[in-house]
Amino acid sequence: MSNAEQCPSTIKSKPKAKDRAHVERSDATGKRYWRSVEDARDEPEFREWLEREFPAHASELTEESRRDFLRIMGASLALAGAATIPGCRRPDHKILAYNRQPEDLVVGNPLYYATAIPTPGGGAQGVLARTIDGRPIKLEGNPLHPLNKGRTDALVQASILDLYDPDRSKEVLRNGEPIEGGWRAFESFARTHFADAGRGQGVAFIVEKMSSPSLSRMRSRILNRWPEARWVPHEALDAENTLAGAAIAFGAPHRTRHHLAKANVVVTLEHDFLTRAGGVEETHGFAQGRRVHTKAGESASARMSRLYAIESNMSLTGGAADHRLRVDLADMPRAAMELARVIATKAEGAGALASVLASYEPTPDRAEFFDALADDLVDRANRGRAVVMVGESLPPEVHAVYHAINAALGAVGETVTHLPVEGWLAESSVSAIRTLCDDIDAGRVHTVVVVGANPVYTAPADLDFASRYAKVRTRVHLGLNVDETAAASTWHINRAHWLESWGDIAADDGTVSAIQPMIAPIFNGKTELELLAAVMGEEADAYEIVRAGWQDMLSLSDDELERRWRRALHDGVLQGSAPRVREVRVNAGAVRSAIGRFDAGEPSGEGAFNVLFQRDPRLHDGRFANNGWLQESPHPVTKVTWDNPVFISSGAAKRLGISVRPRQGRRATLSLGGREIDVALWVQPGLADDALVVTLGGGRERVGRVGAGVGFNTYALRTSEALAVGRGATLTLLRGSHPIACVQDHHAMEGRPIAREFDVQAFRKWGDKILEEKDSYGFTRRLNFAQRAGTEAHTPVNREAYLPSQAHGFSTINPDGTPRTPPNALANKIWEQWGMSIDLSMCTGCGACITACQAENNIPIVGKSEVLVGREMHWIRVDRYFGSNIAEHESDPTADPNPDMLVQPVPCMHCENAPCEVVCPVNATAHGPGGTNDMAYNRCIGTRYCSNNCPYKVRRFNWFDYATKQFKGGFGQLAEGVSDSLMPANQHWVPPRLRAKVSELQTMQKNPNVTVRSRGVMEKCTYCMQRINRAKVETKLQDLDRVPDGFFQVACQQACPAEAIVFGDIADESAGVTFLREHPRSYMMLAYLNARPRTTYMARLRNPNPRLRTPNEDPFDHHGHTDDESAGLPVRTEENGSPVVSLPVLSDAGRRAAMASLISGVL
Amino acid sequence: MTTIFPKWTNKLPTIIAVGLLGALVCTIWAVWYYATHDYTRVGYMPKQPIDFSHQVHVGQLGMDCRYCHTGVEDSYVANIPSAASCMNCHTVADQLSGYLRAASSLDGQTASAHWNNQNLMLVRAAYDSGRAIEWRRVHKVPDYAHFSHSAHLRAGVSCYSCHARIDEMPVVYQAESLSMGWCLDCHRNPEKHLVDTSQVSLTNLHAVEAMLASADQRERGRTLRDRRRLDPPQHCGACHY
Description:
The complex is a heterodimer. Chain A is of the alpha/beta class. In chain A, 28% of the residues lie in helices and 18% in strands.
């Protein structure tokens, strides 16, 4: 065959798609890694997406849209002529100084105030609010708070955006119209209306569950005054089963706290504690248990906890688990009981329990799994170090059984503690609202006051609450948005955000925090306390109410109360307010009789579907639907943004004949119990084949421009009988598809071994060993544990490409290949050398870092239509891989019903030899002496060369004025029935000048220390340069030479509930980050490219139970790396089907030796 | 054969070429000269709502800059003082003037002049009403450049180096270009502008001016620079982020 025949131009076809099957596999784990079905099958659409830095639409206009564009441009030019041209005069900037400057305030410097953010459904997270010149701009965890210990989840990070939401409810409405006099008008109405309420007959309060002592006190005052009034707690995602289960086991409702840092063995039953609302404490504890930061020489004694997950959903917890058992949704209660039986037969003193569970003989397919798991749990070494966690979707009896089992395992007081839930917080939301509905039907209710909740949207579908609500004569609603309930009410009061109100809140352990305002209510909103006071005819502000409540609660003298109050405001927690944990005894008899009555149900037959209603980790029950940060943050597991499709397993999809198409969800009608809705289906690997996972919170009708019409209203299927699991659903496929902005394929990196994982047994064996060998050029290669599993074990040693005089001085290797301590840029100054280490063992993939970064760095949202073409702007992304066993699923990895999951956060790597820097034609991205890769936005001309040259795909481009122009929502969310294909043109093509600017309210949220980027500018993670520079200035003011370790944290590190991200000065030998970088688990992503990233990763460790899976103790002992190969030629790794050509630049002697070896090899 | 074009048109190409060349030179010169911060920014002197005089307060009364610009040593910005700061002294002055008016008819003119002073009435009105005075901003670096007053003061850069003889300005104007080149001039050769940290906010800017102009400033600056281990950053990320 001649060369001409091989030339693609002569054969007139594209080269055959390269076979990547061998590239994605990791011989260290025997797994193949893939992100999506398209990726695993290597479909052409995925390849195209992969090969372009930005996908096709991102840089081109189609012919149709080109015309639209020209038309709009023409119109805008005509307008431009009419408009006055802004002169060359300097704009007039005004400075409004304080009249009386507040004490402690230094203009321009941030002030931190401790406060708390209520967790939906009860509980709270303590935060420090950073305010600059009176505006809160960022929330950080309060280190003094006993539960979240300075960490937060994404919901808290995003709640600052709700404060500045331009769609917030701004005024008091009467029958939907603003009313003259506003709040005063309501007050006078309330005074007359409630004055003749008598004993409260016909008055009902629907209140969202907030664990606020003052609210509970307000409740008892109201019920004292009106004994016949109804107080209806309402949460769509209430812990009904959990509380009922505890009530069986303990005789009273209890909440269980899990102390996972102490646990050696954790078992979860459909309990996704990693994405639970307020799950920061558990995530932190779990990550501590997975922390393998062994000192040198101690790898052999590495210890980590083991997590078993038994679930039908594919949850983040299941992905983090060492062993995951996939069980059919309908079979979950039975499986849980079977496991309970196996444990009870083995655990000491649980014989009586085992005998009542006798009928639950494990089915053969899971007997082995349960047996191994139970032995692990009851192991003497794990006594008091084991815990089983049960999810809300399982029936109360299962919860009760596992309370008994946890007690038998000695977990109580060690890994679990129970706290009584008192008063109205323990009541069941659904039975309360059902009773209320009956009362309305009987005409016994004339006034309903809705406090915070949105029952018209969230109430169970069978109650038809909307029409019942309309029957009530007086309907008062307090809420942050003019939502569905507000629209159906006669009065709507605009609510004050947590950051602008006084209040108090108890965390999950009972610790009380004061909520204090950071800013005066922007729209004169009122708090729930003030509304209820007005209903009582009192004129009190929230501050007075909270103070009076604390006086009652603490019964102290005025002086002492003042002291405690001030202290509590300062610390963010009222010290000593957490009740003492008392040991509660399991009522074994009650548990046994509950089991006797329990019917676990039968597994549904082949081909049947059941619906699992799940909380959306971003939108909760839909209340955060108008929060753009949350809407655009990818779902931690499915990576879907801006939508809530119904998730279906690969097996079921295959059975129904649903073809997987990128970014297209097949439309279908889902019906359950006679109700049906049209939804889009999204294939999710790892789900049980009978499970349709439905997340709540989509399809809001009235919420604001961000959230309206996003997703599907799945509450329409949820009845009071089937709040968590609905059995017997049917699916009817419809024609057509619905675009799903799923980011799982975005920024993919060709399946190179970039996320690495091992078994802990391998680490114990090899962790302390350094592989020292000669590469084919005769240079010594030193590889630690994690590096040996990567391509760098096969490529020649990286050599410095420049002479020392040419090098820009930030490299950490010398020309001879030896490591070099980072140099000082100038002789008389020590510059800190910044670096970051991300521990993949501890990272759970929750995505708090994404939102924290967005809040800190003024990162805009782009909308669904833009995410669909790959233009999301997140500076840090969390990649999620599925891993399926090569041996079992060689041909089709997607056929693996139970793939492993691996997550990896990817910010900018800050390469020392940054590939982006050398291609920038205007030097807009350049190196700083601290080793950071800086972006000068004002210099960037938008060629995007840097982004094309970045091997890590971490650069983001402002295709449009995302940050400075008003967000108008994406396609497909404008109105019902408007198909995406009908939308004529991208709203962003309207010239920027003609688009609405962001409102002044939105600009108030922006961090003044970070530039707001405009159109045509490249941006990326800066390592929070503003925090670095401020820390440097502050240390300079203290006359310190360098920034001490731990002096500041970058935003993602600060938020990370798992403490997986560590940042610091890698030139400081005592710094935490230096230790981690030198750890045997540490490796650089794509190290063989010699980009020398400053962000390094620590390989993930799994802790398999040897009885269930033989640990791979010798991950390096595989066919790809033989002695023959490493001895002769440069090691060839088959990368993309061709030998990797690395460009080692050598000294002359080295080059000669290399050439000689090459030639001799060829000859 | 009749000529269609008169003879002088033969020179036309030359004239046009020379004219174009001249125009080009003029354009380049004009851009070079006018489109720089040295031309467009220096001397910017907006009319302020109150005729506050630095010449009186600093030059004549000898007040320390930090008395009003309190945050300058701690913060990125040197704050405009609150109206309360003005009233610290001016309440006393007001009382004094009232006392004088009552006690001495001789000095009534001075006293009532003080009382009726238009500017002071504005300050008092702002102080009493709580409405902020809308000062016009004079010195401004772009939003994408971040500048810290506190770091520069700590390093030993005097107010004079950027704000010139503000003690001689009845109305504040911008004396330096504040362009990036101007910043870098100093960051590359800081010794020309370094003074001892005790002198950075000297009220006597005249003395600072003289010191910086003196022959031994280079030497003194170098000593200060080495002693304080100063290494003014010149990379993009120092100011642009």
